[in-house]
């Protein structure tokens, strides 16, 4: 499931938890040149915690209670992806509010790649 602060999918997560369905988040960092990695809120929290924005996004997903599988081919990034940060409640809630300041945004949309409207969002 695509999950990140721009597309938190709270209803789906609640449904899955209520029914014992385990979730795996793909593309928790977005896609190539993702705006998430440059997001001002994410960057400030990363700076405060002395880690990368990617580590903050992975930590946010982990704190929400699902497995997170970021893609990387660089050894140093793969290593840093394992270094989850224990986000403070304040930072966690700040990240949860990002979606409320903008429209939900799918960053990996099959429609953009193959012209297939899998999510019925392009009518």
From TrEMBL:
Source taxon at top rank: Eukaryota
PROSITE patterns per UniProt: ALDOKETO_REDUCTASE_3
InterPro entries: AKR (IPR020471), Aldo/ket_reductase_CS (IPR018170), NAD(P)_OxRdtase_dom_sf (IPR036812), NADP_OxRdtase_dom (IPR023210)
Molecular-function GO term, any one: oxidoreductase activity
Coiled-coil portions: none
Residue span, NADP-dependent oxidoreductase domain: 2-98
Pfam family, one: Aldo_ket_red
Annotated protein name in UniProt: NADP-dependent oxidoreductase domain-containing protein
Taxonomic path: Eukaryota, Fungi, Fungi incertae sedis, Mucoromycota, Mucoromycotina
